[in-house]
Write a structure and sequence with these properties.
mainly alpha
């Protein structure tokens, strides 16, 4: 008979091995604890205490998987942790931290669609924090979260979002002043260093020399000894849309300014949700879908940048209950599906295709629920076939 007390004791034994650096040994012991917890939840699936304990185990399990380079397994553990933790009576700070952990695990595993949307969702949970006053409750927590999101956006989203987040995080972390050692779990000093390095690199890559020099000077002042990093010339959403417009593939050029605020300004958006009024999400979709379809075969990088950024914007709008998107989903959903399906033909390989399948599966389910699939049967069937080919298989 599964026993929660025994499961917790086994978890503690594994954590001791991990703390000593023996992650491979810890994983074997974690597996025993995991089996015990799954057995407990099979008998009492809604037991909050067991769910909470199991979520903690999954976090530690993911850390050990990461330590030994098992990034796919770490991502799976973090994803299940989010599912298990759903419904637990925890505050927004705790929920944001869990989603950021998933975003970071996703980016390491190459699951960029999940990474960007989870980072944005995490920051949205901290919307009630006053980002303008260092003494306000939660200020440092928000600063840390934006810094972590900047690292995710750098790998998974528009570089202009990454640099906006890095700049804001750096300003906030410096304004917060010295932080006692161990005051935050993710290392505020490390996050300040990474934010300044990222800001310097992205500003330099975009030709913003003055801003790059300013970030480098702050890096030298606050993180002496930390070397700069270099970034390749970034493919931003603005750059992708402007290129598509010159090619005649993107026709609503007036929308570019609305979707792509200046990344060098003090009001540069640090999140997907902040880049524009979310009411423009559906407008952006219908402008972008023909462009993505036209570019997918010949200019796949442009197609991916445009489609993924619009997808992130739609997810943000959907999460915040944007009225037009919800009321007219039978019109918007098929265009959303078509835009993402165009990416399936770009020849890209790897984990991102599994992420694309996850996004398509969720859209297909909603289209069926809203009775919008029948009118688009051919594309809907093609999407289901893609999902079946690339969907995540159930855990062991």
């Amino acid at each position: 008979m599964p026993n929660r007390r025994h499961a917790r004791r086994t978890h503690r034994d594994a954590a001791k091995l991990a703390a000593a650096g023996n992650h491979q040994g810890a994983l074997a012991v974690y597996a025993h604890a995991e089996g015990e917890f799954r057995g407990c939840l099979a008998v009492h699936p809604e037991d909050r205490a067991t769910r909470s304990d199991f979520a903690e185990l999954l976090a530690d399990l993911a850390a050990s998987h990461t330590a030994v380079g098992e990034l796919v397994e770490a991502y799976a553990a973090q994803r299940e942790r989010v599912a298990i933790a759903t419904g637990l009576e925890v505050g927004s700070v705790e929920r944001a931290a869990v989603r950021l952990d998933l975003a970071e695990a996703a980016v390491r595993a190459g699951r960029y669609l999940t990474a960007a949307t989870e980072a944005d969702a995490a920051l949205s949970l901290l919307d009630d924090v006053d980002a303008g006053h260092p003494g306000s409750p939660g200020f440092l927590t928000l600063a840390d979260a934006i810094a972590r999101a900047a690292r995710v956006f750098y790998r998974a989203a528009d570089p202009d979002l990454a640099v906006g987040a890095a700049d804001q995080a750096a300003r906030m972390l410096i304004a917060a002043g010295p932080v006692p050692a161990g005051a935050t779990p993710n290392g505020t000093v490390e996050l300040l260093r990474d934010s300044l390095r990222l800001a310097a690199a992205l500003h330099a890559a975009a030709g913003r020399t003055r801003l790059a020099r300013g970030a480098s000077d702050l890096l030298a002042k606050h993180c002496p000894g930390a070397g700069p990093v270099t970034a390749p010339a970034p493919l931003t959403l603005r750059g992708a849309l402007e290129t598509a417009a010159r090619m005649g593939a993107f026709l609503d050029t007036g929308l570019i300014e609305r979707l792509c605020p200046d990344p060098a300004g003090r009001a540069a958006p640090p999140t997907v949700s902040a880049r524009c009024d979310l009411g423009f999400a559906a407008v952006a979709l219908h402008a972008a879908e023909p462009a993505v379809d036209a570019l997918a075969a010949t200019h796949p990088n442009l197609a991916w940048r445009i489609a993924t950024e619009v997808h992130y914007l739609l997810i943000a709008a959907d999460r915040q209950g944007e009225r037009n998107l919800h009321l007219n989903f039978r019109d918007h959903g098929p265009a959303w599906l078509a835009m993402l399906m165009a990416l399936a033909g770009t020849g890209k390989q790897g984990p991102i295709m599994h992420d694309l399948a996850t996004a398509l599966a969720e859209l297909c389910e909603r289209l069926q629920t809203r009775h919008a699939a029948a009118r688009h049967e051919q594309r809907f069937i093609a999407a289901l076939r893609f999902v079946e080919a690339f969907r995540d298989r159930p855990p062991r």
